[in-house]
């Protein structure tokens, strides 16, 4: 089977999801603050989330190739196609990089020259946290990933047409996979620090790249399960059996535990060390975003752990479908809570004096000044105003879009998901669904656990 033909109702559903995403993005932009902080942070949130999922797809293909694993060969074309979403991710991150140069947004406090000049910590990190390295380094690494993803996919397709030389192409793929893995490992840490961790520029964590990477890997496995269940329901991938879903379920269960281990390790070590530059990250989220902080752990650990702990649940497609939806949405929320608090404070710090209080954020600026006008605009869209005290300080709490995802945020996620699925299905339709000349194909057909 060399192509995929979607039923008309499925195409309509994808278009509807895409339309919801566009309408949600427009709604966020129109109702946003003066700096359009929610708009840009939503692009960053979804762009990085789905791009890292695409990276993990080709990463797992390469891991499997170097580890001589053949159980997933029968559906590896799904991962090869998922990886091509990195091209879309490149466009989104290039747009954000242009926004830094043009001054369209203030997602990153380190991008403000005045802030860097007045801050010794930012000044010390300026060799890494600067707009030139963000653009050339970040996009350069992403471009390398796209090159390797395209290379692995091209060799896999060429193997289909050269059955006599199947072992030659297998050795070539093994070579390129071995070259890619360290580039993916070290490059992902650099990109994760640049794109995600630097929204809290004073904070640092040696476990952050591992934590974010494991989150993306679990989300990738969940989305793989969802796609395979869908494709099987439409008459494709008959070769994918409960044995394969059992292994995918085990990976989702195992890396859910690994993600939880990293969550606990990062929190415990920072709590035990009690260093101000480190504790501020968790203090902000626990005090001001408790629903996000604790809800994140419940969604991404408690639910999948309890459901997947039983062995037979990894073979029931209905159960796997539900838990995969939970995990996919949960790690989208995880990325949300990693980015939104830092982005909000960066925007408010750019506008003027920002005072931290246990019950929320305080915006203050001289009456009648430009900062006061802009601060009021930010407050109206990004926070729910409380009462103003005798000193003119307004106690505000982060609103929908920062404190918790709103309908527009979920709608935008659906739009990105539709774009991701459409991209995957497009590339999946350009080659045989099963790599017919792969040396490990028979092992995949007869896989049993």
Question: What does the model show?
Answer:
It is a single chain. This protein is mainly alpha-helical and 449 residues long. It has one domain. Helices cover 70% and strands 5% of the residues. It is built from 16 helices and four strands. Strands 1-2-4-3 form a four-stranded antiparallel sheet, with helices on one face. A hairpin with a 2-residue loop joins β1 and β2 (360-364). α2 packs across α9 (208-233), α2 (37-66) packs parallel to α15 (407-428) and α8 packs across α9 (208-233). The radius of gyration is 23 Å and the shape is globular. It starts with 7 loop residues before the first helix and ends with a helix.
Concise overview:
Helix content is 70%, strand content 5%. Helix 4 packs antiparallel against helix 7 and helix 9 crosses helix 13. It is globular.
Describe the structure using short key phrases.
449 residues; 4 strands; mainly alpha; single chain; 4-stranded antiparallel sheet
> Measured on Cα atoms, how large is the radius of gyration?
23 Å
The averaged pLDDT comes out at: 88
The order of strands across the largest sheet is: 1-2-4-3
Q: Considering DSSP H and I runs of 4 or more, what fraction of the residues is helical?
A: 55-70%
Domain module tally? 1
Overall SS class: mainly alpha
Number of strands: 4
- What does the largest sheet look like? 4 strands, antiparallel
User: What is the N-to-C succession of helices and strands?
Assistant: HHHHHHHHHHHHHEEHEEHH
- What is the count of helical runs? 16
Strand percent estimate: under 5%
Shape: globular
Question: What is the terminal-to-terminal distance?
Answer: 27 Å
- Uncertain runs are 353-398
């Amino acid at each position: 089977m060399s192509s995929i033909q979607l039923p008309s109702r499925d195409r309509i559903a994808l278009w509807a999801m895409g339309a919801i995403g566009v309408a949600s993005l427009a709604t966020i932009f129109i109702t946003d603050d003066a700096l359009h902080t929610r708009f840009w942070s939503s692009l960053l949130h979804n762009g990085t989330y789905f791009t890292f999922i695409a990276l993990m797809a080709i990463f797992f293909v390469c891991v499997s190739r170097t580890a001589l694993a053949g159980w997933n060969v029968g559906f590896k074309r799904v991962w090869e196609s998922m990886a091509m979403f990195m091209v879309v991710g490149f466009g989104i991150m290039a747009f954000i990089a242009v926004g830094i140069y043009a001054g369209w947004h203030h997602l990153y406090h380190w991008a403000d020259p005045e802030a860097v000049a007045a801050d010794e910590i930012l000044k010390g990190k300026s060799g890494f946290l600067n707009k030139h390295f963000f653009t050339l380094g970040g996009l350069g690494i992403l471009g390398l990933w796209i090159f390797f993803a395209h290379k692995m996919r091209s060799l896999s397709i060429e193997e289909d047409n050269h059955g006599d030389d199947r072992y030659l192409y297998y050795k070539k793929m093994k070579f390129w996979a071995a070259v890619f893995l360290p580039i993916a490992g070290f490059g992902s840490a650099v990109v994760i620090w640049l794109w995600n961790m630097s929204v809290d520029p004073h904070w640092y964590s040696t476990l952050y790249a591992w934590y974010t990477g494991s989150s993306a890997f679990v989300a990738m496995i969940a989305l793989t399960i969802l796609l395979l269940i869908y494709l099987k329901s439409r008459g494709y991938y008959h070769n994918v059996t409960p044995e394969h879903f059992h292994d995918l379920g085990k990976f989702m269960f195992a890396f859910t535990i690994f993600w939880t281990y990293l969550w606990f390790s990062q929190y415990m070590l920072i709590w035990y060390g009690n260093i101000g530059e480190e504790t501020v990250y968790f203090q902000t989220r626990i005090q001001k975003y408790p629903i996000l902080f604790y809800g994140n752990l419940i969604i991404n650990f408690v639910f999948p752990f309890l459901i997947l702990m039983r062995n037979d649940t990894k073979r029931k497609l209905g159960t796997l479908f539900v838990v995969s939806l939970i995990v996919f949405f949960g790690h989208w929320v995880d990325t949300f809570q990693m980015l939104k608090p830092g982005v909000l404070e960066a925007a408010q710090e750019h506008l003027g004096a920002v005072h931290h209080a246990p019950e929320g954020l305080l915006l203050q600026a001289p009456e009648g000044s430009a900062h006061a006008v802009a601060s009021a605009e930010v407050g109206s869209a990004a926070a729910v105003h409380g009462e103003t005290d005798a000193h003119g300080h307004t106690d505000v709490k982060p609103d929908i879009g920062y404190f918790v995802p709103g309908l527009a945020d979920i709608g935008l996620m659906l739009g990105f998901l539709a774009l991701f699925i459409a991209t995957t299905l497009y590339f999946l339709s350009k080659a045989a669904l099963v790599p017919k000349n792969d040396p490990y194909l028979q092992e995949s057909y007869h896989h049993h656990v």
